[in-house]
Specification:
Length: 804
């Protein structure tokens, strides 16, 4: 029977070879106990004693038997021989002796030390490996997890090929389970509809699946309606959204990516369970994605409406500026004359007539009335200019989603339901009993008018407040991923209760509230006392109180003199090489290219030249077409295939981890730090146009739209985590992501950000998770401290304390 190969040759060698061990690891894995030495000493010769001992320690780690004439690292032999007080060279005699001795010793060790044989534990091992296989398809991860479990449970490791075959069987079992979970509810009609997605009605036209895969259009009314049609098409299939909640997120990502890449023609060729599982996972995930895109479109369009209204107000004011200025000058002149007339006791009407003429005065008053705007001159008075355009999609928005509301937002939910009913029944007049409590003060004069509730302004107010409540989480949408109920983000209640009952919550603080508060109160009091004395005695470096205000000296530059000249000299020492050659050389050092595995088979990319070209095209933003034209021997189709199947977010993340880990382990990196501190910041990049869904405008960076790359960097100057975020989102929302979800060996304990990376919530969560958070807060002098004790206990710091 053909052998199922899941691993590359390099991966097999990595799993079967002896690992490089530090002195501490050598002692941990290969130290013999007194009982071990007593049993070993019963062997007759030094060679047998040393050979028996080496077999014993190898069964413990790396967990496998010594092969015939197998070479064992000298450091292991020497360490074991030293404990037995025998000559390490004796092992050479043991290795050349008859193989029967080795096998007899192996059987004795297995019996005496209660090791288990692989064939006897297959059922238990399969039960252990199956949950992992349900979460990932990665062959190396599966085999590595299997080996780790066998070591922990004293199961003798067989050959890597045997483990590979076993992992393949478990992976097939996991795939069958996943396919069954996603497809067991499908009716014959639903299967027919799914198959119809792969067929084109007219020859040489694209299939409905291709239409569903199209990227989100620009945020316009037409784009909204077109995207909503895709959502309706998926909803018509009547797939149960709960199906994907039963699938591990890593697996779901893999299935949805595979479903988004594979062609309709190739999908048809798959076996029915596999085909339907891919389509169900992809379509249900797409429904959530499209829902989020539609709600984001509405947010963007409402923002644009209000921005345009402000612009119209400003333009109107500028347009009338000349006339207003003339009237102001005229009335200033007239006012001076009237003031002088009162002081001189003259008739004011005669003064007006002499300065301007009574008829001209009446005319200027009429002109001023035309120029005058309401006292507040609010931009909302211009919001109705585009109302008809927004009505093209807003009825679909209100009726097309199942909005849910927190208790504080029920009046807004009632207003949404009222407008939906009015739209369906073609009613124009808003009833007097319509909900109004959700209205902000700015909107009330426009919505509540003498003749009743203004329909257009009422609808705009509802749409605007809907946008705000979705952002805040007080309003959520069934079927959304981004705008879902807060409870859905948390652990299921049953899991939480079980974790709580175990008494082993994974947080480094006391879980008893009273004890925790007592500890924090004592810690705060001690720290406040130290700072109090330091400020009082002027002993705190670069910090002082002056007139009740906190004064912090600016940081001084630590750049040594002459560093620019040294840098130029160092750069002259570097050889000039091609960027492609550098990529190849770094890959030889780190092996990062092995992480770009195939989406389906999880095999590393065999076409390394194409892979590195795709990475380079990404890195310099050249694009695959231009890269194919710039390099001989490359074509667009080959590059596109590698990009589609081997290059994605998680493969980049794993490859980055390889680069960072290599640098982290290099001795020279210790000159910069020990890897225990890190920092994060965002970098803005211009991107697309005003209506591009991928970019937004933030006044901090000017008027052009773009995105922010938010990166975490260790004290070794290695960027160990990076992600693209919305430029309108505060950096603080992503601080914990980098600390928790990076895949490197770096273990930061203290983290720095600028002001935009800090909120009180980030302080709290970092403390809860065991990180020390040290942001550089720009307006620190305006912040207030709050104490458990009475503030008078700290008289020097009293100006900085806001209360208890």
């Amino acid at each position: 029977m053909a052998r199922h190969e899941m691993l590359s040759q390099a991966q097999r060698e990595e799993l079967s070879s002896f690992p490089d061990l530090s002195e501490r690891e050598l002692a941990r894995y290969y130290t013999l106990t007194a009982k071990d030495i007593e049993l070993i000493s019963q062997k007759r010769s030094d060679a047998n004693q040393l050979g028996f001992a080496v077999q014993l320690v190898l069964l413990r780690f790396p967990g496998r038997a010594l092969g015939p004439s197998e070479a064992v690292p000298e450091m292991i032999i020497s360490y074991v021989a030293e404990q037995l007080k025998v000559n390490p060279k004796a092992f050479g005699t043991y290795a050349k002796a008859r193989d029967t001795t080795r096998r007899e010793h192996l059987r004795e060790i297995v019996e005496q030390f209660q090791f288990k044989e692989f064939p006897d534990t297959k059922k238990a091992l399969a039960d252990c490996l199956l949950p992992i296989a349900l979460s990932t398809d990665n062959a190396f991860v599966l085999v590595e997890a299997l080996i780790t479990h066998m070591r922990e449970h004293k199961i003798v490791l067989p050959a890597v090929y045997t483990l590979e075959e076993f992992a393949w069987d478990v992976r097939q079992q996991a795939r069958a389970q996943l396919q069954n979970k996603l497809t067991f509810q499908l009716t014959g009609e639903q299967k027919s509809k799914l198959d119809a997605l792969l067929d084109s009605e007219i020859e040489n036209t694209s299939s409905p699946l291709i239409w569903l895969r199209q990227a989100a259009p620009n945020p316009t009314a037409t784009g909204f309606l077109n995207q909503f049609k895709r959502l309706e098409h998926i909803r018509a299939l009547e797939l149960d959204p709960k199906l994907i909640k039963t699938i591990h997120q890593n697996r779901l990502k893999q299935l949805t990516r595979e479903g988004s890449k594979i062609t309709a023609h190739n999908l048809k060729r798959l076996l029915a369970p596999h085909r339907y599982a891919l389509l169900v996972a992809y379509l249900l995930d797409s429904a959530e994605r499209i829902t989020d895109e539609l709600l984001e479109m509405h947010d963007r369009m409402m923002t644009r409406l209000l921005s345009k209204s402000e612009q119209l107000r400003d333009e109107a004011f500028l347009k009338q500026g000349k006339g207003i200025n003339e009237k102001v000058y005229l009335y200033a002149t007239l006012g001076k004359a009237l003031i002088q007339a009162k002081e001189d006791g003259n008739d004011p009407f005669a003064v007006i007539d002499s300065v301007l003429g009574w008829e001209d005065f009446i005319q200027t008053v009429q002109e001023a009335e035309k120029l005058a705007q309401p006292v507040d001159f609010d931009y909302l008075m211009f919001a109705l200019n585009r109302f008809a355009y927004y009505r093209q999609y807003t009825p679909t928005l209100l009726a097309g989603f199942d909005f849910k509301a927190a208790a504080t937002t029920r009046d807004l939910k009632a207003a949404i339901d009222l407008l939906t009913t009015m739209n369906q029944e073609a009613k124009r007049r808003v009833p007097d009993h319509a909900p109004l409590d959700f209205l902000k003060q700015r909107w009330k004069p426009y919505v509540i008018q003498p003749g009743g509730i203004h329909r257009q302004y009422y609808e705009l107010a509802v749409l605007n407040e809907l946008r705000h409540k979705l952002r805040s989480g007080d309003l959520w949408v069934k079927g959304s991923k981004r705008y879902q109920d807060l409870e859905d983000y948390l652990l299921p209640t049953a899991d939480w209760q079980a974790l709580k009952a175990s008494g082993n919550l994974p947080i480094p603080i006391s879980t008893d509230a009273e004890i925790y508060l007592e500890e924090r109160a004592e810690h705060l009091h001690q720290t406040m006392t130290v700072v109090e004395q330091g400020i009082k005695k002027n002993e705190l470096p670069d910090v002082r109180l002056q007139d009740g205000r906190l004064k912090i000296s600016p940081l001084k530059s630590q750049r040594p003199a002459g560093i620019s000249n040294l840098r130029r000299q160092l750069y002259k020492l570097f050889p000039r090489i091609r960027l492609t050659e550098l990529l190849v050389e770094v890959d030889n050092w780190t092996g990062f290219s092995r992480q770009f595995t195939h989406l389906q088979s999880c095999e590393p990319c065999n076409e390394k030249a194409f892979l590195l070209s795709v990475i380079l095209a990404d890195g310099i933003n050249l694009g695959l077409d231009n890269m194919a034209q710039a390099c001989t021997g490359l074509n667009y189709q080959q590059l596109a295939w590698v990009a589609d199947w081997h290059v994605r977010d998680e493969t980049y993340q794993r490859a980055l981890a390889d680069l960072v880990n290599t640098q982290h382990r290099h001795p020279f990196a210790r000159h910069w730090g020990d890897g225990s501190t890190s920092s994060s910041d965002g970098q803005f990049f211009k991107s697309g146009g005003q209506r591009d869904m991928g970019s937004q405008t933030n006044a901090r960076y000017g008027t052009e739209p773009g995105v922010t790359f938010y990166s975490h960097i260790s004290d070794h100057y290695a960027p160990f985590y990076s992600r693209v975020i919305s430029t309108t989102t505060r950096d603080a929302s992503y601080v914990l992501d980098g600390l928790l979800y990076h895949e490197t060996d770096i273990n930061p304990k203290e983290h720095y950000t600028d002001t935009h990376g800090y909120t009180d919530q980030v302080f709290a969560m970092c403390h809860l998770l065991g990180f020390s958070f040290a942001p550089r807060i720009r307006d620190l002098k305006d912040k207030k401290l709050y104490t458990f004790e009475h503030p008078k206990l700290y008289p020097t710091l009293l100006p900085l304390i806001g209360g208890k």
